[in-house]
Amino acid sequence: MRRFLAVMAIVLLTQLPALADDGPQADAPKKAEPKAAAGLAGLLKAFFAETDDAKRAGAGMALAMQHPDPKAVAAAIPAARTWPADAKKGDVIRWKRSTADGKEHSIFLAIPEAYDAKKAWPVLVYLHGGVSRPVDGSGLSGIQGLGKLANQEGFLLLSPSAEAGSEWWTPNGVALVRGSLDDLKRRYHVDADRVALTGFSDGASGCFHILTHDPEPYCCFLPLMAYPALTRLAGGPSFSVNVRQRPVFAINGGKDTLYPSAQIKPQIDDLKQAGCDITWLDLPEAGHRRTDVFPDHWDKLRDFWQAHPRKALPKQIAWETALPQTEGRFAWVEVLSIDPKAPSAPGTKAAILPDPAGRPVLGIRIVRTYPGPGLKIENVEDDSAADEAGMEVGDIIVAVQGTELKDPRHSMGVLQKELPAMAAAKKAGTFKIKRGEEELKLECLPRPAGSRNIPRPKELGYDLPSGRVEARVEGNTIHVTTRHVGSFKLHLADGLVDLAKPVKVLVNGAVQFEGLAKGSTGYVLQEAVRGGAGAPLYRAFVVVKP
Questions:
Q1: Judging by DSSP bridges, how do beta strands 104-111 and 156-160 pair with one another?
Q2: CA-to-CA distance for 503 and 516, rounded, in angstroms?
């Protein structure tokens, strides 16, 4: 889909200079003749009926050559956008989608028996776990686990398949999820304000990545048994302001052998500190199994989903990125270029979620199945703090700083509290160790975890300068503060400002634009395709260079 948007932009905006971003048509009302209106409706129907990218671009070219009024185009789109009345329902369908590396991925969709194209339907997008496997088809697990619920509750269930090279926190994985959703919106009548993203294990970790890199299509996120910090470690920097854009309902388990809730709590606290609207459900007895969540807690997830429809046109937005070409846009704010020398608002700094690699650790791996009391050591890293203190494989840590450890949940909570305190004081703590029949007291000063074994490629945004735009709307005035932004674009809608009146844009306190925002046929069509359902939200824009 992203490739298609680029192709269409070239066709409509480059070959027709009058429609280009730097010279759009004024959005002035025009009286259409009945014949012209009929022609516009027919051309739009032909445009939206095409599922082939190249053919749709050709239909868009034919429409743009008629030079219709962009406002009239936007108004005519809802009637022109139709979905097959005989679409398959009460069944599971499968199609293929390719990623940039040439691999094909199976996409699965469960359609409820009650599906009726006359109304818009909510969508649950499910991301499966185990994405490092070099096999296709794992998306079927979403259908197997949630298909009955989709039929009973009345929602479309979309479950793409990822594998090694297209993990959910990679560019391929993100494009696969967005592209699968775009495919669905072409074929079925989707309620764009009620699309939720959920996932289990790796899929849930992918939810947190998409929350900070591509959250716009979703109304809320429902990650189950996630390791939230995975996106920061392997998917590029996660900027704090981005987590504020969508609400989250996350679930973790106290007996999860991979991501126990005691280990996850500091990451949840980081998200809350950054301003994320996150509800966290800690299930003390739950392990790392999807069946520990469904169906017992489905009611809570469903109620959260229903209570949080998408706010498509928020009056205030903050968005930061190091990769403007692929991750520059959220809703009506788009970072076009980054320039560290560009004027910035005083006092603004990069806002990146804390890297868990910097947290103090002992350098041990514990036996996850050991029931306690205490923590049993499975492995000690060479030259780690624990190694230097004399801890060995098989040792059981039974007390820390005088606090006796109980079950693994309690023990992890004590470590999460005491290790940072030791590191902050730069003073070794006391660890009571049981080694066979012997009890020892060892002094140990934890060290930052480090990330020497985790690659940080620049193509994911690591160690690159980032740019941030914060914007709020007051009447027809848009107040913007920027940091390291060379240029940005504001996509405007009637529900955001009054497009019939002049718009004023103040950047870092100075007026940078004042006048009527303008649009073009090509722009309106591009936004219609991008939105995927109903009328296009945006039909005019302003480009600003601070």
A1: antiparallel
A2: 6
pTM: 0.82
| Domain residue limits at 489 | 316-351+456-544
Q: Which residues sit opposite 228 in a β-bridge?
A: none
Residues 6+ apart with CB under 8 A from 262: 254, 408, 409, 411, 412, 413, 416
Other beta carbons less than 10 A from residue 438's beta carbon = 8
Distance from chain centroid for Cα 64: 33
Ranges of the chain with pLDDT below 70: 1-38, 292, 355-358, 450-454
Can you give the pLDDT at residue 357? 62
**d(Cα 88, Cα 283) in Å, to the nearest integer?**
38
Q: Which of 83, 88, 80, 84 is nearest to 60 (CA)?
A: 80
Whether 397 and 370 have beta carbons less than 8 Å apart is answered as no
Is residue 85 in some structural domain?
A: no
**pLDDT value, residue 349:** 76
Q: How many domains does the chain have?
A: 4
Phi, psi (rounded to 5 degrees) for 290: -65, -30
Q: Which of 266, 213, 241, 271 is nearest to 349 (CA)?
A: 241
d(Cα 117, Cα 149) in Å, to the nearest integer? Answer: 20
Calpha distance 456→235 (Å, rounded): 9
Can you name the residues that pair with 108 across neighbouring β-strands? Answer: 94, 159
95-107 per-position pLDDT tens digit: 999 999 999 999 9
Token readout for 409 is 């949940």
Both tokens of residue 194?
A: 């009620």
Consecutive H or E run containing 482: strand 477-483
Residues 186 and 255 in one domain: yes
**pLDDT tens by residue, 7-20:** 343 333 333 322 23
Count the Cβ atoms, other than its own, within 10 Å of residue 98. Answer: 14
What amino acid occupies position 106?
A: S
| Domain finish residue from 388, 420, 448 | 448
